[in-house]
Design goal:
By secondary structure, this protein is α+β, with helices and mostly antiparallel strands. Among the domains are: about 5-40; about 155-255, Fusion Protein Consisting Of Minor Coat Protein, Glycine Rich Linker, Tola, And A His Tag, Chain: A, Domain 2 (2-Layer Sandwich). The chain has 3 helices and 5 strands, in the order αββαββαβ. It has helices at about 5-40, 175-185, 220-230, and strands at about 155, 165, 195-205, 215, 245-255. A 5-stranded antiparallel beta sheet has the order 1-2-5-3-4, covered by helices on one side. A hairpin with an 8-residue loop joins strand 3 (about 195-205) and strand 4 (about 215). The longest helix has about 35 residues, at about 5-40.
């Protein structure tokens, strides 16, 4: 193996160092050239920051109009005459409501005093002749009833109600009125026809009664049936103890009016 001369080694290192320095300088020069070229090509606005454009704004107070004064302050202007006081507002007239004419209301004259009724004239009817007979007797009727039908006592007949003709010797009128009240409560008196039906029936001692019989027809079958309908499911009290008879015969008149 041949030995290397020391001078040759140092010379080779020097050449290598010179090549490295040359390469570094070439790279630096290329970088600087590139930067200069970029600066020439790049727009100027990238490097220079422009100030924003400001638009002046003018504020004006008050309403626009013709300029009548100068630029002097208001306190420096001369006073030429005294300003008159501001006019007072004119008062509004008072509105008055129109007068309404009074309407004359006719007054009614006071009612005339009715003439007082004269005294009741005396009854000029012809008195009934006295009942005559072979012997004077007091009779068995409790009162003169004025009945023109069957003989006996007439009970009821007020305000379009039924009228009952009883035996003349019947003692107890309160019992007879209760019988009429119970019959009228069941009587269909409102009918389309007009007439009068007489029905006869007898009440027994225990309060039961015989089947009502049409004694005098009104001429209408509907009215006769309406009179008999008042006895359906009818309940009566027993005969009074004061009455000595075994049955009480009643002639009952049903009037149909409009």
């Amino acid at each position: 193996m041949q030995a290397v001369h020391p001078g040759f080694t140092s010379q080779r290192q020097a050449l290598q160092n010179a090549d490295g320095l040359r390469r570094t300088m070439m790279m630096s020069l290329a970088v600087h050239v590139t930067v200069v070229a970029v600066l020439f090509v790049m727009p100027r606005s990238w490097l220079v920051r422009e100030k924003p454009l400001t638009i002046p704004v003018t504020l004006q107070m008050g309403s626009p109009g013709e300029k009548t004064g100068g630029l002097n302050p208001a306190g420096a202007q001369p006073i030429q005459q005294v300003a008159p006081p501001p006019p007072r507002p004119t008062p509004l007239p008072v509105v008055t409501s129109p007068k309404t004419e009074a309407i004359a209301v006719p007054t009614k004259p006071p009612p005339k005093a009715l003439p007082r009724p004269a005294d009741t004239p005396p009854d000029k009817t012809t008195p009934k002749p006295p009942t005559t007979g072979a012997v004077v007797t007091p009779g068995t009727a409790a009162a003169a009833t004025g009945s023109t039908g069957q003989s006996g006592i007439s009970v009821g007949g007020g305000a379009g109600g039924t009228t009952a003709v009883l035996d003349a010797n019947f003692c107890c009128m309160e019992y007879a009125k209760e019988v009429l009240r119970r019959i009228e409560a069941r009587w269909p008196k409102n009918q389309q026809e007009i007439g009068e039906t007489t029905v006869m029936f007898e009440i027994r001692r225990d309060g039961s009664f015989t089947k009502p019989v049409v004694e005098k027809s009104s001429g209408s079958t509907m009215l006769d049936l309406a009179s008999q309908a008042a006895f359906v499911d009818l309940r009566l009290q027993p005969l009074p103890e004061q009455y000595i008879g075994q049955t009480l015969k009643i002639h009952l008149v049903f009037p149909y009016k409009r």
